[in-house]
Amino acid sequence: MKKLRIVYLGTPDFAVPSLQILLDNGYDIPAVITSPDKPGGRLGVQMSAVKKFAMERGLTVMQPEKLKNPAFLEELRSLKADLQIVVAFRMLPEVVWNMPPLGTMNLHASLLPKYRGAAPINWAIINGEIETGLTTFLLKHEIDTGDLLFQERVSIGENETAGELHDRMMQQGAQLVLKSVQAIERGDMHPLPQKETEVTHAPKIFTETCKINFDQPVAKVHNFIRGLSPYPGAWTQLDGKTLKILRCVKETGFKTLPTHGSAEKPPPGEFFTDGRNFLKISTADGFIQVLELQLEGKKRINIRDFLNGYRL
């Protein structure tokens, strides 16, 4: 059977393994579409992870500023793709996603219709989920609303961060992309509509909304911190500087309360340390114990190294 001709669209690290697995399984990738280069980096420009990988494999790379540009659309048509695959790319206009005869397939990092949007991995952890998943689906006009092809469940560890879950899911996602493409190739797919009654959302996260609210229960604070680690990072203030907490564990209750005068319960947001081994911050019903952090202008560091060089 002749392998499908696939145009691949993606930008960050998450999209690289899916592209690699298609190439390794002999699929014809006439072009890769990724975001334009950004200023900065060692060479004066910052290329996307997908562009770097595509160039290493000798693939044609297209970087349109505007996806409705007539010259870009003409070039895209000339590729005569059977199928387009999108993994972590921007929203496509209908003239693009509806171009190939087999349509355009997307990989999304949730069990759609749950966590539609830009940050499904982060919000699943922030909301305290113990399970999420991966979904392949066929694109249509409204974002993340197309008919479902395949889904795979993924467990979430009690202390797992968004970064750790991301790395696991990008590898599992590649396997699901391959499974989906092979089914499309065989004509063995049975798309199912999403249940609109089960929709939840995962909007884009901004740095200013990542401030930690220690007035909440310790479980919520813990989930918030690991759901934003390592990027953009949940933060608080220490001596007038931004302090990002990147890894922690939770302690419910105040049995391990360090010396605190005559108070039985400290106010939320108070720091406690022995100056050498631990740093705890009080919440509404316990502590988070900080394991890794990053002070404004400094590198990420573990708590012992931090306390060794910083006097609270």
Secondary-structure map:
Elements: E1 5-10, H1 16-24, E2 28-33, E3 38-39, E4 45-46, H2 49-56, E5 61-62, H3 70-78, E6 83-87, H4 94-97, E7 104-108, H5 120-126, E8 131-138, E9 148-155, H6 162-186, H7 218-227, E10 234-238, E11 241-252, E12 271-273, E13 279-282, E14 286-295, E15 301-302, H8 303-309
Parallel strand pairs: 1-2, 1-6, 2-5, 6-7
Antiparallel strand pairs: 3-4, 7-8, 8-9, 10-11, 11-14, 12-13, 13-14, 14-15
Helix pairs in contact: 1-6, 5-7
What would the keywords be for this entry?
alpha/beta; Rossmann fold; 312 residues; 8 helices; Methionyl-tRNA Fmet Formyltransferase, Chain A, domain 2; six-stranded antiparallel β-sheet; 25% helix; 2 domains
Walkthrough of the structure:
The chain folds into 2 domains: 194 residues, Rossmann fold (3-Layer(aba) Sandwich); 103 residues, Roll (Methionyl-tRNA Fmet Formyltransferase, Chain A, domain 2). The strands form 3 sheets. It has a 7-stranded mixed beta sheet with strand order 5-2-1-6-7-8-9. The longest helix has 25 residues. The chain is built from 8 helices and 15 strands. 25% of the residues lie in helices and 26% in strands. By secondary structure, the protein is α/β, with parallel strands linked by helices.
